[in-house]
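Appendix B. One record, verbatim.
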Amino acid sequence: MDLGIMLEARGLREVFREVALYAPASAARQALASSTRAFPEVSRVGPDHAVDVATFITGQFGLPSEMTELLQLGLSHMGWMGYFVPGEVGVSSAGFLTVGGRAALLHTAATRPDSRGQGGQSALILRRLQEGLAQGCEHFLVDVEAGQDNPSRRNLERLGFRPVFEVPFYTAAEPAD
């Protein structure tokens, strides 16, 4: 029997689906070598920008303000590396990278809606690939909202990432009135 059908029978419904994407170091090197477009400048998040970037990310994802402190903790004490694209009115794009051994996780990336289509996300992806390679990473992972129409997914696949698996998220169904 299908898991989704079983969960629905127990009062749960799928509310979100993510796809995990993977790229080997060879694909990362190829993406960096073949990138000829002029992308926006990407800066590393230091102590002077940690609050701004954390606030930007929580705002873009619609997270409660308490999450800003958690993101700052990730940057200051959990080994996350942060990167951002400065814009005319503050941060226009930002994302994090976590390295564990020979694997790198590109995560928590967002672009302000009025900055989309300007290359900020691609610049962030390339910068994080560059950093991961510099740290000896052989494997690059990222997860994004599933679906072929996701611009983040298209950017990642254009740069050599390939889908590996999807993860559905379930919640209790709303009670009928």
